[in-house]
Design brief:
The structure holds 2 protein chains of 2 kinds. By secondary structure, chain A is mostly beta strands. Chain A has helices spanning 5-12, 23-35, 93-98, 380-383, and strands at 47-57, 60-73, 77-90, 102-117, 120-131, 134-147, 152-170, 176-198, 203-216, 224-228, 236-240, 246-260, 264-275, 280-292, 295-306, 334-347, 357-375, 390-405. Chain A has 4 helices and 18 strands. Chain A is globular and about 70 Å long. By secondary structure, chain B is mainly α. The chains are: A mainly beta, B mainly alpha. Chains A and B meet through helix 1, helix 2, strand 1, strand 2 and strand 3 of A and helix 1 and helix 2 of B.
Chain lengths: 406, 85
Amino acid sequence: MQLAQGLGEARAARAGSDRLLSPFTRTLLALCVIAAPALGGVLPEDRADVMWHNYNGGDLTVEGPSVLVRKKVGDSLSLSAGYYEDMISSASIDVKLSASPYHETRKQENVGVDYLHGKTTYSMGYIHSKEPDYIANTTYYSISQDMFGDLTTVTLGYRRAWDQIFRDIKQPDGAIVNDPTFHQQADHRGYTLGISQILTRNLIADFNYELLTDQGYLANPYRKIRYLSPGQGEGFTLADQVYPNTRTSNAAGIELKYYLPWRAALTGQYRFFRDTWGIVANNVEADYTWPWRHWIFDGMVRWYTQTHADFYSDLYPYANYANFMARDRELAAFTDWTVGAGASYQFNVPGAPWISKSTANVRFDHLFIDYKDFRNALLAGEYGAGNEPLYKLNANIFQIFVSIWF
Amino acid sequence: MGAATMSRMSKRLIQTVAAGALLAGLAGCTAPTPWVKPYEREHFADPIMSFNRDPISNVYLEHVLETREGAHGATGAVGGGCGCN
């Protein structure tokens, strides 16, 4: 069984420690919160979405359903609920090196509430995620306010997550159970500031900043580091990873969307990321959206690059080389490209006058990751430890979903 | 007057000026004249101008990328869970 490091990453999108905020910053945030109720917003539309998703790449398949429903109650309250499932079948390079292929299912439920008062929207929600060896609970809160003649919307948010991490083992009879000697916890917090600004009659900008902190067990209990051991096996030996117990990250992004004269939209996006593990990342994205009759088409290209974490190495020179050691490829240096396209078709549902609009949608994305210092250790016997070809990942991501507005 | 006292006074002065500027900024920004009038904003009501036209799709793609990249955050989405290796 394998648990994904990525969960830490996905969940890591919640972090932030009040200890890191200076008195002046706290005052600024307090003033923003106090000022918020004086100003406003619009509740999201009532709609329901049903999706099937499929990810296939690197001998890993993840697919499953996703459902999202949102409904207003009265004029000032909107409720939302969602269900998401990942059915995972993995024989990835990490699994082949240090674990065994596995199948498992992750289920996630979420509920949310948005309350509109004047020009202020208060939101809160709860997400529960469970898989055999990982349980995560996340809560989030935000306050959003329109101001300056509704040209500007400012959003302040906070989220916190508590994770319980287990490690699965296979018993002699083949049953897979949680290792009774392994039970770890992690805590994630995040503070967000978002500003949406209408700049001209055709241009709108969206700025987001997020301070994130993670604390606790942040490693993947299944993945291993490797160190040189000439003359033994394939020239390397596997050992447990040792991660720091804390991580603080800062991320800031800006998105610009421009309405073109022939009714199409052009979007540009940039994000900068930096954390205390030494990872610096940049990504840029361009999207083009154009409607045609009952259709809306989307095209997207995204480029991402990151440096490796300070304590990352593909191959350590000897055992216990450093206090912290990791070989998770999410912490390696790499560049990736995502190219995607989608189509949405609007249709009428006969005999259902309560449905105001309905669409059928498909989307396909291709992800290519070019690792700079993560080698295919499975080929060590052929090339020698440390001389294997660098690993590359190609993945196809497919979504099909139906949406109705009511 | 000692150097420590001078330092404290300087710090207090800077904080006072900063707080005053912030309050003045907030007060001064409460009612600016909108440079894009409400009747000039029809393009923003078009679904193609939404930053989050299909939330279910955006959250999913965000999740796929975040589980494979070291960076995260500042996307406006709240995710949870995994399905990563």
